[in-house]
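Priority: medium. Attachment 1 of 2:
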């Protein structure tokens, strides 16, 4: 909203040229009135002193805040949106964590997945020293496990290997190691704060069952973001964290030495809010909602829809680069293959992990559904119309409140038989029915000779059947601020910007060229905790 002085000036200039246009004159008077009201209702500028200032109230920001408050620090979070959550609240799947006690509650049946990963490492990644070294370690672990197959097989190194292969080997190995080595402890930390992620299942790009998900009182899977965010907010309130909503950070304040010493922001009525702090943590998310910025770094994504929350505009990256921060992998932008074709709503990858299949316009499967997102998306885009149908059955619906939500929102078509569903989908009914019967046989045999899928659940043979029309959309920006394993923000020469820390999607290097599903929640939890502790130590 303009100030009253500029509004009156604009009116004078325009009205002089349009004296006879009553409609324009009326509109201009309204414009002046609004400006006057804004000026009159504008809150006073304010200054707040805190030990730690955090920008962004998503998963990473609130995790960092809880951690810092637990260290006895005063914490202020600035959030541009009218509510907390950011992109984190939109997370639908779960959190990857390697070698947890909750994995051991599952029967191990993913030998083919481990073998496939080791084969991929040997045949496609032999020139990558990090992947080769990890594969050697995992191969030794796998051999030992087979001698005495007790419990569920997984390891930190296998999670690292999956993450590095998924990221095309360009990930920062040290950040990946930090992510994976701290993932199991992060599950326990969440547990201590009343956030329970104990149900384990399969997800795209993972060799074994590693995705940890929440369930409701009936044991049905629920979306991880909508489950976690209210509980993180509750923990922030208990810890005395001050959260300023509708407060948009514009500038990182620095002292004469270049150290971060606070944030300058704009409040909801245009007032200036200054937070003086001993340490600053950026958790503003990526830039997936800023489609101009997306196209700037990856022109081929022009015209794609986005799954991102409105606040994911890249402002944290811009503020940090203004004070000398370096960036990495900015052109690495992930598209997700299961975005509801009409609304751009994200459809959880967990459905494919739990047994769903993707069907093209010809009524046929066309890809290993639990492959990495980049591979599945590329295959989907290559199909007729660049879309597909995600197919589930009633048994899956009964086990998932998430799917039930999709049905209530009108995302699905349905049929009592495969033929009826095929007709509702607008595909060849006979071809679709044959595809489903063939797939069910593959599930029973635990072998997919068509596309090499190694993750199987139950046959899709319980009527009625449901399908969601999906397409690819901009989902995650893997690039961002360059950080070290202590979440300190780095300059181009590798030196740190004193007092400035960052965690979550605002950073780059963790995910490389492609993020695995479930690694975003792991990312913001693991690195959010590290950032909160590091900022607290710096502010001591």
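Attachment 2 of 2:
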């Amino acid at each position: 909203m303009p100030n009253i002085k500029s509004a009156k000036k604009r009116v004078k200039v325009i009205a002089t040229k349009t004296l006879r246009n009553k409609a324009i004159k009326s509109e201009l008077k309204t414009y002046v009135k609004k400006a006057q009201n804004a000026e009159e209702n504008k809150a006073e500028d304010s200054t707040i002193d805190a030990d730690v200032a955090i920008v962004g109230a998503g998963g990473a920001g609130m995790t960092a805040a809880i951690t810092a408050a637990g260290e006895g620090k005063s914490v202020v979070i600035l959030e541009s949106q009218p509510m907390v959550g950011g992109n984190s609240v939109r997370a639908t799947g779960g959190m990857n964590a390697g070698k947890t006690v909750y994995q051991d509650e599952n029967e191990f049946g993913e030998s083919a997945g481990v073998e496939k990963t080791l084969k991929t490492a040997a045949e496609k990644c032999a020139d990558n020293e990090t992947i080769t070294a990890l594969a050697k370690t995992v191969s030794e672990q796998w051999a030992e496990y087979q001698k005495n197959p007790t419990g569920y097989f997984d390891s930190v190194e296998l999670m690292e290997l999956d993450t590095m292969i998924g990221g095309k080997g360009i990930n920062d190995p040290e950040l990946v190691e930090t992510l994976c080595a701290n993932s199991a402890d992060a599950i326990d930390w969440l547990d201590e704060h009343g956030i329970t992620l104990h149900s384990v299942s399969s997800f795209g790009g993972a060799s074994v069952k590693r995705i940890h998900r929440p369930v409701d009182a009936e044991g049905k899977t629920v979306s991880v973001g909508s489950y976690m965010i209210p509980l993180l907010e509750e923990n922030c309130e208990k810890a005395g964290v001050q959260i300023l909503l509708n407060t948009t950070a514009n500038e990182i304040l620095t002292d004469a030495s270049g150290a971060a010493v606070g944030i300058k922001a704009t409040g909801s009525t245009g007032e200036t809010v200054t937070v003086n702090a001993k340490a600053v943590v950026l958790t503003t998310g990526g830039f997936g909602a800023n489609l101009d910025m997306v196209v700037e770094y990856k022109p081929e994504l022009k015209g794609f829809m986005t799954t991102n929350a409105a606040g994911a505009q890249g402002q944290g990256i811009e503020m940090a680069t203004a004070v000398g921060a370096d960036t990495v992998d900015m052109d690495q932008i992930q598209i997700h293959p299961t975005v509801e074709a009409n609304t751009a709503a994200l459809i959880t990858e967990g459905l494919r992990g739990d047994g769903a299949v993707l069907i093209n316009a010809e009524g046929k499967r066309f890809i290993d559904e639990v492959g990495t997102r980049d591979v599945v998306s590329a295959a989907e885009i290559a199909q007729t119309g660049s879309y597909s149908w995600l197919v589930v059955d009633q048994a899956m619906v009964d086990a998932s409140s998430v799917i039930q939500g999709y049905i209530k929102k009108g995302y699905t078509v349905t049929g009592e038989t495969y033929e009826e569903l095929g007709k509702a989908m607008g595909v060849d009914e006979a071809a679709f029915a044959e595809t489903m019967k063939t797939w069910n046989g593959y599930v029973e045999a635990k072998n997919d000779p068509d596309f090499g899928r190694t993750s199987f659940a139950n046959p899709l043979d319980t009527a009625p059947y449901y399908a969601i029309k999906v397409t690819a959309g901009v989902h995650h920006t893997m690039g961002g601020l360059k950080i070290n394993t202590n979440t300190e923000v780095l300059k181009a020469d590798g030196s740190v910007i004193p007092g400035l820390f960052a965690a979550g999607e605002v950073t780059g290097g963790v995910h490389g060229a492609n993020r695995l599903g479930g690694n975003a929640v792991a990312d913001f939890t693991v690195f959010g905790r590290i950032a909160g502790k590091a900022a607290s130590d710096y502010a001591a």
